[in-house]
Specification:
alpha/beta, globular, binds D-xylitol-5-phosphate, 8 strands, binds zinc ion, 8 helices, TIM Barrel
């Protein structure tokens, strides 16, 4: 299981050193939540901030765009140093054009689905993306409760990928911590975003190691 700490829960006055701390603590990817106060009722940071903190780690930057018109800003996030860009299937941009734009900039494209959006919404795009991000909370804020009824979407997406011969990673985001990571792993998720669980822990390295261990145990036991 890969763990992607969500910087939404970091100390924003020290974002660079927070990224270094996550790097040292065993984070696999850095998850950066971009919100525009339009697509979601919250406002965070944009490409200039991501560009400013890019040099603090070599780990992949997983940029989650919760914005109404992602297509317009792909170049900005590419220039800022994104490695993965995920955007919402519910956004207003032309989905195929946005995927192509991300791909043309040499970045991994991914689609995100909100809790009320069925897994089938991403089926038409599975052969052209590298990642599907399943929201396990309503997007907008950290620290919300995990929605376990979202997990069957992972198997649905996996089944369709197998049918198409598509190679796609599945990521889950929202409310993931010690109490919820095992079931998430068992559902077939490859990458877990964790904000509160990692940043509010006393020892981030220990928290990440524990999350990985819980995910592994459950993966093994699911075959018995
Ligand atoms: C919510 C964001 C998440 C969030 C996760 O809109 O996409 O990445 O920050 O935070 P926790 O792990 O606290 O739910
Ligand atoms: Zn996110």
């Amino acid at each position: 299981m890969k763990i992607a700490p969500s910087l939404l829960s970091c100390d924003f006055a020290a974002m660079g050193s927070e990224i270094q701390r996550m790097d040292r603590s065993g984070a696999d990817w850095m998850h950066l939540d971009v919100m525009d106060a339009h697509f979601v009722p919250n406002l965070t940071f944009g490409a200039p901030v991501i560009k400013a903190v890019r040099a603090y780690t070599d780990k992949p930057f997983d940029v989650h765009l919760m914005i109404s018109d992602p297509l317009k800003y792909i170049d900005d996030f590419a220039d800022a140093g994104a490695d993965i860009i995920t955007f919402h299937v519910e956004s207003d941009s032309d989905i195929k054009k946005t995927i192509k734009k991300i791909r043309d900039r040499g970045i991994m494209p991914g689609l995100v689905i909100k809790p009320n959006t069925p897994a089938s919404a991403v089926f038409p795009y599975l052969e052209s993306i590298d990642l599907v991000l399943i929201m396990t909370v309503e997007p907008g804020f950290g620290g919300q409760s995990f929605m376990s009824d979202m997990l069957p979407k992972a198997a649905e997406i996996r089944r369709e990928c197998e049918r198409l011969g598509a190679d796609v990673l599945i990521e889950a985001d929202g409310g993931i911590g010690e109490a919820t990571i095992a079931q998430t792993a068992r559902a077939g998720v490859d990458v877990c975003v964790a904000g509160t669980a990692v940043f509010k822990a006393e020892d981030a390295a220990k928290a990440i190691a524990e999350l990985k261990e819980l995910a592994e145990c459950r993966q093994e036991s699911s075959f018995t």
